[in-house]
Amino acid sequence: MKEALGIIGALLAITAYLPQIVSLLKTRQSEGIDLRTWFLFFVAAALLSSNAATSPDLAFKLQSFSNLTLISITLLLVCGIRNQSKIATWKQQSGDRARRVSYRLTSGWWRVKKRIAGDVK
Questions:
Q1: CB-based contact 74:17 (threshold 8 Å)
Q2: Which pLDDT tens digit goes with each residue over 75-99?
Q3: Which domain holds residue 60?
Q4: Lowest-pLDDT range, 3-17, 67-81, 83-97?
Q5: pLDDT classification of 105: cutoffs 50, 70, 90
Q6: What is the CATH number of the domain that holds 51?
Q7: CB contact at 8 A, 19 and 70
Q8: Does residue 110 sit within a domain?
């Protein structure tokens, strides 16, 4: 009976992570998530999992390893989303720079061409 309650508690804890993971996958936005907090959760789960590995309690093992797995998934999603956002921003900025340089080169070329033709004094 005690182990069944532990397993039910572990399953409830697992379901607590799912809305966060689903939200990250759907919206691809991670602005409100503090990475330092999730890294602390990860370290705590890793330490508990190392303790659970030697424990005979199945519920404790299930809870520890599922926490570690779901925290890892959350961290990977957040870091991936933020990295994609930085890459997109960089691409946009470099594209803007390329257009500006291209415009400057072409507009300068037309001025040179007009000067040669005698249209611009």
A1: yes
A2: 999 998 888 877 777 767 666 655 5
A3: 2-92
A4: 83-97
A5: low
A6: 1.20.1280.290
A7: no
A8: no
